[in-house]
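Running co-folding for flavin-adenine dinucleotide.
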Amino acid sequence: MDFSLSQEQEMFRSSVRKFLDGNGSTQIARDFIRGDGSSLEKALAGLAGLGCTAITIPEKYEGAELGSLDLVPVLEELGRAHLPGIYLETLAFSVPLIEKYGTEQQRQKYLPQIATGSRTVTLAWLEPKGGYHPNEVQTSASIEGTSLVINGTKSSVPEGETADTYLLLVRTSDGTDGEGLSLVLVDRDEIKVKTRKQKSFDETRMLAEVTFEKVIVSTDCVLGEINQGWSILQEGLLHINAALCSLMIGGMDRLVEMTAEYAKIRVQFGQPIGRFQAIKHRIADMKTDLETARSLSYYATWALETNAADREAAIFSARAFTTEAYIRIASHSIQIHGGIGFTEELDCQLYLKRARYYENYLGSIQHYREKAAVALNW
Amino acid sequence: MDFSFTKKEEKFRSVLREWLEQNLPEGWLEGKTALPEDNREYSQFLRNWQKKLYEGGWAAIAWPKQYGGRDATLMEEIIYQQEMVRVKAPPLINYVGIHMVGPTLIQIGTEEQKHKYIEKMLTGEEVWCQGYSEPNAGSDLTAIKTTAVKDGERWIINGQKVWTSFGHLADKCFLLARTSNHEKRQKGITVFLVDMHQPGVETRPIIQMDGEHDFNEVYFNDAVAYDADIVGEIDEGWKVMITLLMHERTGIGAQLFTLEQQFGDFVELAKELQENGSPLIKDPLVRQKMVDLYTRNRGAQLNYYRNLTTTLKRGYPGAEGSMDKLLVSELTKEMFSYALTLHGHQGVLWKEDAIMDSSWQKNYLYSFGMTIGGGTSEIQRNTIAERILGLPKDMGR
Ligand SMILES: Cc1cc2nc3c(=O)[nH]c(=O)nc-3n(C[C@H](O)[C@H](O)[C@H](O)COP(=O)(O)OP(=O)(O)OC[C@H]3O[C@@H](n4cnc5c(N)ncnc54)[C@H](O)[C@@H]3O)c2cc1C
Ligand SMILES: Cc1cc2nc3c(=O)[nH]c(=O)nc-3n(C[C@H](O)[C@H](O)[C@H](O)COP(=O)(O)OP(=O)(O)OC[C@H]3O[C@@H](n4cnc5c(N)ncnc54)[C@H](O)[C@@H]3O)c2cc1C
């Protein structure tokens, strides 16, 4: 019995933290919000240099061939520093899917570039009117010989204007509930799309509407079998949701830390506010929520890595709990900071906005609870 | 990360399992698990059970071999608790002796004390209770007023204890008494090993809100103890209490494993209870709430294993135990509360009229004691904030 990250994993965490702290931590996100992407670029390059982008990629494709658990400390640190970017979509969605379903040609093309940090992949799923339900996917890709002709508009695509590759969910034939959908790898520099930036509440998240008008790509770009996109996507959701928990926990950890520190030094009525139990007990609950989320998330990732029988229930329930706890912790941290908590200057608001973004990202809390109930055979 | 048990641990489990199958009271595994109502019969039944555990070498596995234990590892203790919960084994009547007083005496008791008490503790011949709380001292034990005054050879004890679990069944009491007054109120408290069967000790029952009688008031009127009955140093009982707390390392685990088992029953309940011909577990709102409870229950179990890992590596338990205690007690309360909600208006029918099993109502009522006994939830929150996060202590401490 050893329910903890390994020494190597913790050591890797330290080096990532040291690097990000050395580069300004949340200041990177603040520069980015102001429109200056240079510090982010530098940070992302540095992280790639540390090997963060290569972790789960097989050695054959220039990766480190480690497991999902090895990604956990890295994601926690990225969440803590509140780094903008689509590393989650790239590393915890596209990589496992390309590895498992990609053709040899696709693997050779994408995995080494992702490993070195020179390629990012985003997920283009939502559409302007739709939700996450498969019936709402209207963007079509019709097969003409060895070509796919894509028509339609994707919405709220993370880094839709800058990502190197879209992992695009399209309708390749008629059907309901996931039938007839396919995933296609579309490289942005090989096609022409119309994009429109969408302003996001979480300003570190660059979203865009991406319109495909008779965009032609080769059928070789289909990931896995044609018309099997929905079930492939389900596998990807396991990976990305487990990883998302780690990312959120990094932010929660920082919030609890900064709130506890503030409660020790802020004096009112002649004493640190951390002595008032209205504050103290709330912080204790925040800490308890954080550790519960962390345990659930470690287990979820362990279950994913070891293909445990309860992996679906573990991942979906962890996802639902962690999202809710993140919002709760961020809200409390603002309140406990008093007037200064309400300012732009303090980082609390950054984390809160991110938490609200993730709340419904790839599905709502209710949706994931229901999925957990189904996984539990209830 | 590794959730597996070693071969040696698995072997330990199967040996214990086999022993339990052969030695649990007759019909127990088939569900004949009702305990006698009558206090005397109840006590005898549980003493017999402990004797049996003792004879099999299963009464106090964490104790050193030389004192009749097995030198069990922490993991073996966990497995032991898991197996006991799995078969819903009868409660250990001498829980206080085996898990608290015994290990403390083995560590810091005198040779005479060990000789006098240890074996009888193990066999169930002498049952122990813990005399800490008083009417004016609960969360704050430094406020105790029970006194012990030296009179020649003897210490004369006067005062009142309250909420004393097992008090009516106990032969001995691990008692906190004030022996002197100091500015630092932790100082001046002394631990005595007191005989409950003496003229100066009177036990009166207290009936709990669940209708049961587990705890008592205990009055000390010129009760007597001797120097030889003092544990540790005079006036330094606080240190003894901390030593004792360090030994109480798997009680929360047992509560968590019990909750896990009860959660399984809870799921079955939601499948059996119906509304308009459809099982409640198919109702979307019920499912949402149940997944939430499931998740937090899993989280509490997993926290426990994570804290256990820390304890194993560090060698002693830390303040994280407060989180385990807070979560298991609050979650148990919440789960049984929701179980009653699911019963609908028939939830108020109980005892022989209960529509399901009356244990739902009973456990619901019992659960209120869990967030109070063993340190209230508020005290656990203080500990989490102060000892784990370093927030300033409350006023007056
Ligand atoms: C939108 C907005 C507009 C404002 N406008 C004005 C204005 O026009 N003029 C003006 O003078 N001020 C103004 N303020 C300031 C406002 O009055 C203070 O922010 C508020 O009184 C809290 O004080 P603080 O920010 O110093 O927080 P603190 O007093 O430091 O409180 C920090 C935290 O500790 C808690 N806390 C403090 N004491 C206790 C206690 N005894 N028990 C339990 N918890 C405690 C607080 O509830 C809070 O959660 C404004 C604030 C805001 C947010
Ligand atoms: C089922 C059960 C079994 C028990 N068995 C035993 C036993 O065998 N031996 C024994 O000695 N005792 C036993 N107790 C007593 C138990 O230890 C006390 O009830 C408990 O410590 C609380 O003390 P109290 O009842 O005096 O409540 P109080 O300490 O008076 O507390 C009243 C309320 O005030 C809150 N409070 C107190 N201090 C603080 C603080 N600093 N900050 C915030 N809130 C605070 C508490 O959380 C509680 O909500 C048992 C209790 C129960 C319920």
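Result summary
Residues 293 and 321 of chain A are 7 Å apart (CA to CA).
The pocket of flavin-adenine dinucleotide (ligand 2) is lined by residues A 277; B 130-133, 138-139, 163-165, 215, 369, 372-373, 375-376, 378-379, 382, 394 (CB under 6 Å).
Job closed.
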